[in-house]
Task: structure prediction
Amino acid sequence: MTRDGRNSYRAGMIRDSMISLTGVSKRYDGKRQVVALDAIDLQIERGEMVSLVGPSGSGKSTLLNLIGGLDRPTSGEIRIGGRSVATLSDDDLTRLRREQIGFIFQFFNLLPSLSCLENVALPLHLQGLKRRVIEQRARELLDLVQLASRVDHLPDELSGGERQRVAIARALAFRPPILLADEPTGNLDTHTGADILNLIRDLHEQLHATVLIVTHDPGVAESCPRMVTLRDARIAGDVRR
Result:
């Protein structure tokens, strides 16, 4: 293949990817400069389920934050669903995060004074939907994560696994094509963590979402069809099974 042919092929891959990073770097300036990510090239196709692994400080969370639009790169280009994040205004970036990306966190981030139903419904209010429609959608989501019997419970009345299920239901509020999970089993015991992983895998198959999971758990990492390894701010491995 000629050089022009390789460039055309690569451009086609980028256009078809759900998540595309080209030459992405992130540096923090202070008394000394810290390079969190260094010239990352990464393409994640629509519908892939990918684990992101590496030692502490390797850049995993930084990469997830950049993909999720929570931070901007120092250099390089990030494209989500074919759109360059760099060209988006702050309002458009907020809309992208809300409607295109579902976030699942290690510590759930539920509001303790709200019921399960209210926690899941909270982001839906931003769409200006009627209360009846919002409640119906929230109930459907809780049923999807097998918590239909817990709609009126407060987070303190739930187990850790149940709280994570509520958090996952909330992440699905806008039916996002991308799910980003940051150590989703890290705050759970082994058995409960396995249940949550199975739930994420089931949702991936049902919803055909693109899923990226940051994890330190080898079992979680190896259960994904693709595993990307970060080390010293660069990609050190990319294995498909």
